[in-house]
Each structure stands twice: as structure tokens, then as C-alpha cells.
Amino acid sequence: MSATAIVLAAGEGTRMKSNHAKVSHQILGKPMISWVVDAALAGGCDRVVVVVGSHADEVRTILDARYGSRAEAHVECVEQTERLGTGHAVRVALEATGIDAGPVVVLNGDLPLVRPETIERFAASVADGGAAASILAITPPDPFGYGRLELDETGAVIRNIEQKDCTPEQDKGLLECNAGCYAFAGALLAAHIGEVGCDNAQHEYYLPDMLEILRSHGGRVAAMHVDDYTEGLGVNSRGQLAQLTCIARDRINARLMAEGVSIIDPTQAWVGPDCTVGRDTVIWPQTFLIGDTHVGEDCQLGPQSRLTNVRAGDGCTIDETVAIDCVLENAVDCGPRAYLRPGTHMLNGSKAGTHVEIKKSTIGEGSKVPHLSYIGDTTMGSGVNIGAGSITCNYDGVGKHKTVIGNDVFVGSDTMMVAPAEIGDGALVAAGSVITKPVPADALGVGRARQTNIEGWAHKHREALEKKYGSK
Ligand code: UD1
Ligand code: MG
User: Is the pLDDT score of 114 beyond 90?
Assistant: First the structure.
């Protein structure tokens, strides 16, 4: 069955009080709009039309970045230049695309937790001459702001009444809420969308009015109630954004634990929806896995680590570490307090220790940068030890330069490697050196002033001080 999705994302999002599109706000590192589009794609919609308007460029950029290069994901945008309501948004989409057949699933763009299975069931309910429309119904603990569904004795929908148009009795008495997820028989939707008016409290064209219109034409409109009301929660405010973030976190953490991941405190681990974590990995509190992050088995993550677009193998320890766009192979040891910046590649058994920053560098197998170092634009072989406080001086104020360190090199503490720098295999660099010339393989590189001792100097100095100031 092929279905089309129309995702409504043109609204102003006034209640968010934001300078950005409402649907650009993130839940666990992923913009709301991407949650909805992903659910539509996974739910079998082979074409997704996103209605953009307010902050259209921002929404287009998000969609381009995520779906632009994926040939199998047909995601396109239609612009609603005037925001006259959800019914108007759907009309604009139908007119722009010419969609007039097949199941059409309409999803509010602020409905991030809808499940793909639900979308699939929805599309099926209107396919092959089934219902004219179906609507997702929930009974949330706080129905404030939701449209209320009036049902007949068979459970079919008579109409939706927006809360602002409800009488006090309707506000109290109608418990089923419209989640903002609909399926329509495309031909009927296209034929009758023009009949939606705007004679209501907000003077807007309400999409849910289509339900009553289709019924008046003899169509059956089904309410599809989901017991897990969280699936139908919308985001209109910052409070709801925070609430849905917690719900998404709990859902993901429950899945991970079922798959064999230990989470010390599931209220304090935030794992993005696209991340994966292997068995027997332990997630300590205050840990965030964001974006395209994938961690293998038997790792210790956190406490207090943030990994964004990181690939980590098995057996890694990532303690109090911030890592972005990095690859860590197996048994890599990071932190506490390591900062691994984009382009860092840590090979098997390597280490980035305490107060260590690494950028755009390869750290070879078993190599160690244990304390207080900055390593940038560097290729490091295997079995290297970098002494405490050593730094690659990769920036001359204008350009960045590379450092190449061979295998089995020992760099003494507090060494400055002024790039471009080269240290050959098996070489040793004396502590406190400033390295400005290549160090050949197996050589000792020393770049520091020679030590001189002046016998008795300290004693004489003390005597002179005592004479001047008197004894202590
Ligand atoms: C809407 C429903 C309400 C339902 C609730 C579920 C209507 C009239 N009301 O209310 O019955 O209970 O969702 O969360 O549909 N949008 C456009 N163009 C517009 C207006 C809105 O694209 O002209 C988009 C918004 O960006 C948003 C979605 O449509 O993603 C819903 O709009 P919103 O203003 O959030 O509607 P609600 O008041 O939440
Ligand atoms: Mg809403």
C-alpha cells in the first residue's frame, strides 16, 4: 500500500516565544520535524510533503540536511505563505502537489512521539474504500488546548470542537482529544477540502472540520483511540517540550535496558533516537548520546559524558568526556575531563586522559596522551607516550600545521612541538623541549637551555636578604 503524508509545519508557534520555527526545537538532539517525518517514512509513507511557512528556510535546511542525500526518502516542501489554519495548510499542499488519491495521512508537525505502527494502521484504515477518514484519539490527563471529539453511540466521530469553541459543558464532558494525526481517503479529501470555513473563535480554517464535512457526505469517520496517550501529545509550549523530552528519554531508556544496557539512573541518561548502544555497556548519570552516536558492548559511559556523532567500539571507558564527530576504536580510555573534537580518531587501546584536548588527529594503537595536553592536526603512530603538559603548537596565527609522530616515540613532559613538526620512530624528546626541527628516528631531541648550577648562590642570597630585612 502506498500512502502519502502531509506534515503541517508552517505555524508561527507563538506559544513557544521563540525566534526559531517551533518544529526546529529539538527533543533529545533531534528536531521535532524530523521525528514526525521519520515516523511517516518508517510508517510506510513513500512521499512526505511538509507544509512550511513561518521560518520556512530554517525548516527546509533541517529537512535538506537529513533527507537531501537519501534517494529513498521522498521529502518535499510546499510553502503556505499566509497562515490561515491547519485546513488551509492542507488545501495549499493538495493544490501544490495535485494529490487526489490514495491514503493521505496528515500529521501535525508538533506531534513528535507518534509511532510508525500507528501511522501504518491509519493509512490502512482508509485504504480500499474503508473509512473516509480516521483520527487519532487520546485521553491525556490534561486535555487543555486539544480539540474535543464528539462521538456517536457506535464510537464514530460526529465532529471535532476546538477547545476555544467549546461550551463549558463540552470542555468538561468531551474526554476524547484530537491528537492532530489523521488519515483521509485522498479522493474525498481533495474533493471536499474547499468546504472548510473559518466561522469560529480563531477565524481559522480548521482541518478537523473535515471530519464533520465528510460525515455529512455519507462517509464514515473513525476514531482510533490509543491507550498510550503520550503518542498523541503535541508541543505548543516550552513546558510541553520538556515534558515530551522526558517521555522520549524514558521510552528510549526502557528499550535500551530491555536490550541489555545498564543505566544507573534512567532519569539521568539522555540518548537520542538514532543512537545505538551495545550489550553490557553501563551508562552512568548525566550522560548524553546525541545525533549519530553508536557505542559498542562492555563500555562505561560517564558519569557526565556528552557524545555527539561518535562511533565507539567495545570495551571503552569514556569518563567525564565531551566528544564530537569522533571515532574511538576498541578499549579506548578517555577522561576524566577529556575534550575530543571533530576528526579525532583513537585507535585500539589508546588513551586521552585528564584535561586533554585532541582535535583532527589520529592517536595510534596503544598510544597514550595521559595528562594536560593539546594535540591538534597530528598523526601519531602506535606505542607513543606523550608526557604531561605537552602541546602541539599547530597554529601560527594564520594557518594550521601538521605534526607527524612515528611509532614508539617517547615525548618528555612539557614539550612544545612547533608544527610543522616531525618526530621519527623510536625517537625520544627531552622534557621541556621546544621542538622546531625534525627529530630523526631513534634520536634524542633536546630543545631547551642547558642547566647551570651556581654553588652556594642560594645561601648567599638568603644572607643578603637577612641583612636587608633582618632575620625572620
Ligand atoms: C491542533 C488541532 C487540535 C488538536 C491539536 C493536537 C486544529 C484547528 N486544531 O491544535 O484539534 O487537538 O492540534 O495537538 O487543527 N500549522 C500550519 N499552518 C497553519 C496553522 C498551523 O502548518 O496555518 C501547523 C503548525 O505548524 C503545527 C500544526 O499545524 O505543526 C498544528 O497547529 P497548532 O497551532 O499547533 O494547532 P493546535 O492549537 O495545537
Ligand atoms: Mg499544536
Answer: yes
What's the mean per-residue pLDDT of the chain? 97
3-state secondary structure 431-446: CCCEECCCECCCCEEC
Locate the ligand 1 atom nearest the alpha carbon of residue 236 and give its number: 35
Distance (Å, rounded) from C-alpha 256 to C-alpha 436? Answer: 50
Sign of CA dihedral 376, 383, 432, 338: positive
Q: For domain 238-445, which CATH number applies: 2.160.10.10, 2.40.110.20, 2.60.40.10, 1.10.1270.20?
A: 2.160.10.10
Cell numbers linked to 384: 607513543
CB-defined site of ligand 1, < 6 Å: 8-11, 51, 53, 80, 83-86, 88-89, 108-110, 146-147, 160, 162, 177-180, 206-208, 234, 236
On whether the CB atoms of residues 455 and 430 are closer than 8 A, the answer is: no
The cell numbers describing 459, all together, are 645561601
Q: Are strands 133-138 and 221-225 parallel, antiparallel or unpaired?
A: parallel
Closest atom of ligand 1 to CA, residue 110: 30
pLDDT value for 135? 97
- In terms of Cα–Cα distance, which of 103, 5, 116 is closest to 51? 5
CA atoms within 13 A on the CB side of 123: 27
Strand partners, 262: 282
Q: Is 49 exposed, middle or buried (0-12, 13-18, 19+ CB in 10 A)?
A: buried
- Any idea of the CA torsion for 360, 389, 352, 348, to the nearest 10 degrees? 80
pLDDT at 472: 67
Delimit the domains of the chain by residue range: 3-232, 238-445
Closest CA to 255 of 283, 234, 277: 277
220-276: pLDDT as tens digits = 999 999 999 999 999 999 999 999 999 999 999 999 999 999 999 999 999 999 999
What is the model's pTM? 0.94
**Cα–Cα distance for residue pair 5/46, rounded to 1 Å:** 8
Q: Which triple of cell numbers denotes residue 255? A: 528499550
- How many Å lie between the centroid of ligand 1 and the Cα of residue 236? 9
pLDDT-derived band at 199 (thresholds 50, 70, 90) equals: very high
Question: In which band, very low, low, confident or very high, does the pLDDT at 129 lie, cut at 50, 70 and 90?
Answer: confident
Which CATH class name applies to 3-232?
alpha beta
Return the ligand 1 atom nearest residue 163 CA.
11
Summarised one tens digit per residue, pLDDT across range 392-408 is: 999 999 999 999 999 99
Which residue is listed with cell 577529556?
Answer: 338
Supply the pLDDT for residue 471.
Answer: 76
pLDDT digit string (tens) for 32-53? 999 999 999 999 999 999 999 9
Query: In percent, how much of the chain has pLDDT > 70?
Result: 100
